[in-house]
Write a structure and sequence with these properties.
The chain has one domain (38-352): 3-Layer(aba) Sandwich (Rossmann fold), CATH 3.40.50.970. It has helices spanning 43-68, 83-90, 106-112, 116-123, 157-173, 195-207, 226-229, 237-241, 255-272, 299-305, 310-321, 327-350, 356-359; strands at residues 2-4, 13-15, 99-100, 183-188, 211-217, 220-221, 224-225, 246-251, 276-281. It starts with a strand and ends in a 28-residue tail after the last helix. It has 13 helices and 9 strands.
């Protein structure tokens, strides 16, 4: 298997650049996958993955256009280049397994099944958005799909990942409700140095909480190269060793590799109620946010990575190896995705903005009490469109 070795420029793929697995069961040897799980999946499952990745990419392209036209405000972080990470990882869990992520979250929301219209309306700050326009780009939330938000503060979601894992474990083991579950907590490599993550990892390791921390390692914390910002950058799994947590390094540019290597870890964490830590090597084609001038890397570096584009890799596999996708069918899929995203934009543009009164004073408290404010009563606002 080819993975991206953590070099200073992170361009050249190298063989066997990961450290040799220890004799301890804490660390998975992600380079030795004897059985290809993805090969046993139905053709339509992989075709569905391709569709979802195309949807995310087209959605983000149109998001960038809307942001440039001042139709989307605030901060905006697009997911282009990293589509395989969200789609592949989420494909490994059950629909009712809880997920929490950081602020580059549109891709996760769509991969989890959020309606593109509700996602785009939230970007536009409209009442029909997934958080009634109050969250915006960085705070996608979809309770029906068990997506418990994107979070704008770096690493703020990592303790929440531990809490979600505690909740599902408590429900199963103490309340005898439902099946075993596992929580996914996505974070960027910039969150590795936050104390919240290390406190959370200590607790999940201590209590055996079934949460998997997935580092979407795109090599840059905003504009700071990973080697300049964190220790053990060549092997981030060493950070998990300190807490007795199983870990693995996975090539995040190939969705089949993600499924092959991540699915067994998910199944083991679910069955044994244990945490895990994944260093998922990926790359973002655009800046950290829409305001990023990207002076810290060259165009040649980006173009080199694009030679292993995740969408192109999967499309080639479906065409050349499985022979279930034709060029015409691929073009038709792209056309259908464009139509879907165009409809989402029209929905967002035609939707009303939240009314200042009462929405400004609603949904602040779960159980509003009288006399909380000397100037206004807090209330429950309009019903969330996703509910």
């Amino acid at each position: 298997m080819t993975v991206f070795c953590a070099t200073s420029r992170r361009i050249e793929p190298k063989e066997n650049c990961m450290s040799t697995a220890t004799a301890s069961n804490k660390k998975a040897d992600a380079t030795k996958q004897t059985t290809s799980l993805s090969a046993s999946l139905p053709d339509q499952t992989l075709v569905g993955w391709l569709h979802d990745m195309l949807l995310i990419r087209e959605f983000e392209v149109r998001t960038m256009q809307a942001y440039s036209n001042a139709k989307i405000g605030g901060f905006c972080h697009v997911y282009i280049g990293e589509e395989a990470c969200a789609v592949g990882a989420i494909a490994c869990v059950n629909p009712d397994d809880p997920i929490v992520t950081a602020y580059r979250d549109h891709g996760h929301a769509l991969a989890r099944g959020m309606d593109p219209g509700a996602c785009m309306a939230e970007m536009y700050g409209k009442i029909t958005g997934c958080a009634k326009g109050k969250g915006g780009s960085m705070h996608m939330f979809d309770k029906p799909h068990h997506l418990y938000g994107g979070h704008g503060i770096v690493s703020a979601q990592t303790p929440l990942g531990a809490v979600l894992a505690f909740a599902v474990k408590y429900q199963h083991e103490v309340m005898n409700k439902g099946a075993k579950k596992v929580a996914l907590c996505f974070l960027g490599d910039g969150a590795l140095n936050q104390g919240a993550l290390h406190e959370a990892m200590n607790l999940v390791g201590l209590f055996g909480l079934p949460v998997i921390y997935i580092v979407e390692n795109n090599g840059y914390s905003m504009g700071t190269e990973i080697h300049r910002g964190t220790t053990q950058a060549d092997d981030l799994t060493k950070k998990a060793d300190a807490y007795g947590i199983r870990s693995a390094t996975i090539d995040g540019m190939d969705i089949r590799t993600i499924y092959d290597q991540f699915k067994p870890i998910v199944d083991e964490c679910r069955e044994n109620s244990r945490p895990a830590f994944i260093d998922l090597h990926t790359y973002r084609y655009h800046g950290h946010s829409m305001s990023d001038p990207q002076k810290y890397r060259t165009k040649d570096e980006v173009n080199e990575i694009k030679k292993r584009d995740s969408i192109a890799l999967l499309a080639a596999h479906l065409m050349d190896e499985r022979s279930v996708l034709t060029e015409d069918a691929f073009k038709a899929m792209q056309k259908d995705v464009k139509k879907t995203v165009k409809a989402a934009i029209q929905f967002a543009e035609q939707s009303p903005a939240p009314a200042v009164d009462p929405e400004l004073y609603s949904d602040v408290y779960a159980n509003p009490q009288p006399n909380l404010s000397p100037i206004q009563d807090y209330t429950q606002g309009a019903e969330n469109p996703l509910l």
